[in-house]
Amino acid sequence: MTRPIQTVALVGNPNAGKSALFNALTGARQKIANYPGVTVERKSGRMTLPSGELAELIDLPGSYSLDAASPDEEVTRRVILGEQQGQRRPDALILVLDANNLEQHLVFAQEIIALGLPVVAALNMVDLAKRDGLILDAKALENALGIPVVETVAVRRKGLTELSTALAKAADGHEIEPAISDDLDMAERRISARAMAKAAILSETRQRRLHRGLDKVLLNPWAGPVILVALLFVIFQAVFAWATPFADALDGAVMAISDWVVATFPSNILRDAITEGLLAGVGSVVVFLPQIVILFFFILLMEASGYMARAAFLMDRMMAFVGLSGRSFIPLLSSFACAIPGIMATRSIADPKDRLTTILIAPMMTCSARLPVYAVIIAAFIPARSVGPGIGLQGLVLFALYIAGIVGAMLVALILRRSAVKGDSSGFIMELPRYQMPRLRDLAIGLWQRAWIFLRRAGTIIFSVTVVLWLLLSFPQAGPGEDQVDASIAGHIANGLAVVVEPIGFNRDMALALIPAMAAREVAVSSLATTYAVASDDEEKTAQALEDRLAGDWTLPMALSFLAWFVFAPQCLSTIAVAKRETNGWKWPAFMLAYLFALAYLSAGATYWIALSAGL
Length: 616
Ligand SMILES: Nc1nc2c(ncn2[C@@H]2O[C@H](COP(=O)(O)OP(=O)(O)OP(=O)(O)O)[C@@H](O)[C@H]2O)c(=O)[nH]1
Ligand SMILES: [Mg+2]
Description:
A 6-stranded mixed beta sheet has the order 2-3-1-4-5-7, sandwiched between helices. By secondary structure, the protein is of the alpha/beta class. It starts with 6 loop residues before the first strand and ends with a helix. Helix 17 (370-381) packs antiparallel against helix 26 (556-568). Helix content is 60%, strand content 7%. The chain binds guanosine-5'-triphosphate and magnesium ion (MG). Guanosine-5'-triphosphate binds at residues 14-20, 32-34, 36-39, 61-62, 124-125, 127-128, 153-155. Keywords: Membrane, Transmembrane, Transmembrane helix. One of its GO terms (cellular component) is plasma membrane. The chain crosses the membrane at residues 217-243, 277-301, 321-344, 356-384, 396-416, 454-473, 558-579, 591-611.
């Protein structure tokens, strides 16, 4: 006896292609996109059965299990079980499986099949599987699952007729006896999913197997984070170890030019401007080009190879813990180059509270402008010795500074999500791109772009701010026996500010560096260099490396305090301006400015006093 099918539902894991199939079968235009969680409500349309009759087709949100964890999964559960008000319980189901993620998708599939409703499976995205060198055996899968399996390519409308024929047949008459038992628990379903997926693979290229093996290790909940941290650790070691010869060479070149200028030209104000402002100031920043290039070499490598998306995947759980979603990862990651593009990238975050929180913590990610500041202080105060096989102390301190910013950001997010920006975090699971050998050309272009951005900053903003500072430091000229810096306009301002920052261990020169560094953080370095160059009346000393001057003038607690300040301080006005534009007002940027300054002051102070009492 034939029972007419009236209602059919599409079920399956997120991003399996349910909505694409829905559109293909009904001619509707549901939104589909290549990330999970697109469909969050049930949608219905009409599909034509082979008999010519119409049936209602329901598109459901993707789900991992019938034990609903989120509101959209709850919708799926209620519709399938017939508990949804105003919705007929489906007479049959189309189970959509992504051929490329069979092992994962077969877990939920077993739960669906065990319900005992007529089910047909659409083995979708077989086109992508073929492209990647994976050939599946639909018949083997059919036998294992005990339901018809039809290969489909939803976006090319392939396999649709076969699918609806199989659907009509499955729903026709006889109650089916599911081949899947319903008393398995999650772990047992996983094991049998793996076995079924393995049995369904006819052939797989070596490369695909290799990539899957890699993912098993890199995404392992235990090994994955360890590898990620180890990798970052190596990167920061390299930033110091590899850059040193290049940085020394650049440093030597700047000093040689300075010596030559002093020897060649008569002593006058223009010569001072060149040696003290341009060469000492801007030169002190430019020497960090090798560090910047090495850091971005690794970042670009991780992006191009496909590892970065895996890192985001690993971070997702930690992000969820502090009330953010994995979607915040990419904006936060871009903030390691600069917070401005990072804050702009938050536009991809749909949830306004998620987005606001991400904007507020983005400035704590260590941007590349901080690298020269960190590097110069580390080079001056942290001895270049190893604290273990292959582990340099300098790289370790740099690593710790980056981690301090990340930990600070996560703590602030945690607090914000429970107070000022209260709300639930939205779940998100990343689609992982394929592994790829990075292309040398792309890498070279990427590096060139980063280097150019850095040099352009040095030539424009850092140069102009340093020149203005040099003028303010050089005038009015000091009388005999008077300190030039103290006598200058800049010195007067700095002495005023020094009162405020004295409790956290800053001296006048450090206070002086803070104001111009609001234009760009690197200026902290050039301004220190220019200050010391102006202060020394001896030409020999003008050319002395900044690191030596710092090591002579500051104590270790002062240096550590300065580093701690730069981890948190909102030392960059452009970031505040962008935050204002992206949040449409002054309220949040003002809040950002206030809490970051407070955090910087407190952490610098704590660092100073702890270091002092530890006898450093
Ligand atoms: N190449 C290829 N792409 C497909 C196929 N089916 C779907 N896609 C693509 O896969 C992505 C996900 O498809 P959706 O239809 O949005 O997936 P969904 O199952 O509805 O996902 P959720 O609504 O998040 O549960 C989209 O980018 C589709 O264009 C297919 O057979 N072949
Ligand atoms: Mg969908």
